[in-house]
Amino acid sequence: MKLPCMVLSLLFFSFTSTILAADIPLGSTISASNPNQSWSSPNGTFSLGFTTDGSTNTYFLAITYNGFPIWKAGGDPGGVTDSTATLRFLPSGNLQLLNGSTNALVWQSNTAGLGVSAASLNDSGNFDLKNDTVSVWSTFNNPTDTILPGQNFTTNNILRSGLYSFRLLRSGNLTLTWNDSIVYYNSGLNSSMNINLTSPSLGLQPIGIFSLFDPSLPGPVIIAYSSDYVEGTDILRFVKLDGDGNLRIYSSARGSRTEIVRWAAVSDQCEVFGYCGDLGICSYNDTNPVCGCPSENFELVDPKDSRKGCKRKVEIEDCPGSATMLQLDHAMFLTYPPEITSQVFFVGISACRLNCLVSGSCIASTSLADGTGLCYLKVPAFVSGYQSPSLPSTSYLKVCGPVIPNPSTSLVGIDKDNGWRLHAGIVAVVVVGSLLGLIVLEGGLWFWCCRNSPKFGGLSAQYALLDYGMVLLEIVSGKRNFEVSEETNRKKFSVWAYEEFEKGNVEAIVDKRLTSQEVDMDQVLRVIQVSFWCIHEQPSQRPMMGKVVQMLEGITEIDKPPGPKAFTEGSVGGTSVNASSVSALSTFAASALAPSSSSSFQAAGVSSIASGKNLERASSSLLQSESN
After folding, report:
1. What is the CATH class of 270-406?
2. pLDDT higher for 462 or 329?
3. Which option is the CATH number for 2-138: 3.30.420.10, 2.90.10.10, 3.20.20.70, 3.40.50.300?
4. What is the DSSP string of 481-543?
5. How far does the signal peptide extend, from start to end residue (predicted)?
6. Which label site among 84, 176, 236, 372 has the fewest CB atoms less than 10 Å from its CB?
């Protein structure tokens, strides 16, 4: 009798803890109250079970990798449950998520009556409901916020995270949308290709290549590279729509419990519509975007979460006759499709302000000082603001007078005992500013004087960036790029400099006359990294000049640049990589160059994709967006 009892005990244990490497039978359940219960893939890479965000008593049923959710039942926040929730695999073949405290149905697979006989979680991270060996329903065909290697993302799929969504249109355009209404990112094939797509889809290869596929294309069109492209083994790379509205590629090594951003669709987070909520203003501190209110006429909706936006202390309708316009220098209110064209004018800055003030329907306006004379009026709706010293625009926001500006930040950190901090800060700004000024000035003069000389010949925009990168490196180092000496171990200086950069020995690269001064080495490091990106061997992977400026200013994060080579070893276009990999984990190692993580679509024999801000898109060559 002891043996049968032992067998029964083992069977009971297998269904109350982790189920491994076997089909999951009908009638199985998982409870949130038992954190040890889960269904795992055969090699233990992925598991399906309840997880919590740790800060509140909220639970999600999720497939996880390294503890990070890569699929959530019902999405976020639709799939939120409490600690009494259960997942039931009913005899009918339907999968149901119930909130135990109320027995309310939170989510279901709607697969009752389809002959489902078992379920399984495979090593690619795909959870299948099967009729014998045929898949009836799967998480790969019903994604929530993540795309995994081997997963086919089509025009029928949508990624969602909070108010944000990501779609692939039939035209091949990739779009990011706020609240299913405002399209703030739209990137697609260059119209000169003149190709009608039939069934476009997206796929991520395990080595970190995100591509567009279609039978009418001559080959996969590369959307983006992970910045750690082909590096390392046992690394999972995935595409995820985050709650801040940005689409990113992440990588996470097995067992590391860390995920690292390797690419982002929107390089400037403040350009994501609604990032700081209604009436919120997005700006940057030293490295990160921060949210705040336009003035002291406003207050945060939630003092604990500045991203939820701001509200007026006194509403406009409560102060008839005393409304005025708050001026915000170097600021703009984001204007993306489908903004009403009747609210766009070509007027001066004063008229842009007054037209909004006298209009009962206008609450804000932005006047662009970029030579276009455009004025955007914002009618009562969601208003998303962005303020930065680099923005050539002035914005106005209707408030009840008098205007109460935010406290000046110029005196922050100064007191009578520590006044020296201001002096030191000014010195640092002057030194770094002078360095960047010299870089821009000398690079510009060099390009202007030499671009059409007989010695150098005509230079295209691609090669102008190459030369600019060389000038950056030469100014920082005080050495010529092609200089070869004993100090550089008889190597070309740029090759030697990259080797020192990889070792973390940045000071060896920098001109000794600079290292003897008090300079910001973080800023110098940015200049060196930018120079390596500008001299990238593949011209199409060099960043645009606008992004170069953002990287130098510290607005945009800089991924690790690839190393310069004396000769090109190969091209991505010539690399044959099988997209249908059996495992989601990359174990591929190669010596190919790591391309830039910038959002540029490429393919062998296919011209690059046009991509840009929606404000510039009216005159671009992108394919027009289609309705879903």
Report:
1. alpha beta
2. 329
3. 2.90.10.10
4. TT---TTTTTS-HHHHHHHHHHHT-GGGTS-HHHHTS---HHHHHHHHHHHHHHT-SSGGGSP
5. 1-21
6. 372
